[in-house]
Amino acid sequence: MEPAGALAGCAIRENPPTWPAYRQLVRTVLDVLPRPIVLLGVCTPAELPDWPIDLWVVLDCSDQERTRRLGQRADTSTVREAIQDAREYRSLGLPVVDSTGRTPDEVAGDLVRFVRF
Question: What DSSP string describes 10-70?
Fold first, then answer.
């Protein structure tokens, strides 16, 4: 994201108006790469309807864990928004890998097993 942000003249993560162009940049790169590809992101199937995606999964944790992880880095409204976002992702009915109380290595192992084909 940093090189794209340098081109855009702003931080992509912090500027939602840049997200559609960044998404298209990622899609352009994916179109020239060999398959299979594992892409981690924060989009829903509805946001990427014509992308060549065979499998979706939600990487999740409990609301309590999310609050703890955000800790002092986020204000109350940001924590509330993150919890609401998580609830919306859960409502999609996609498979879930729960990271609550687990190490990154344990979660990565689950993701590897999930995407093997």
Answer: S-STT-GGGHHHHHHHHHHHHHHSPSP-----S--GGGSTTS------EEE--HHHHHHHH
CB 23 within 8 A of CB 17: no
pTM given for the model: 0.77
**pLDDT digit string, tens, across residues 51-84:** 988 889 999 999 999 999 998 788 889 899 999 9
What is the residue extent of each domain of the chain? 1-33, 36-115
Handedness of CA 99, 105, 110, 116 (dihedral sign): positive
Structure-token pair, residue 44: 């829903």
The structure tokens listed for 20 are: 């559609």
When computed from its CA atoms, the radius of gyration of the chain, rounded to whole angstroms, is 16
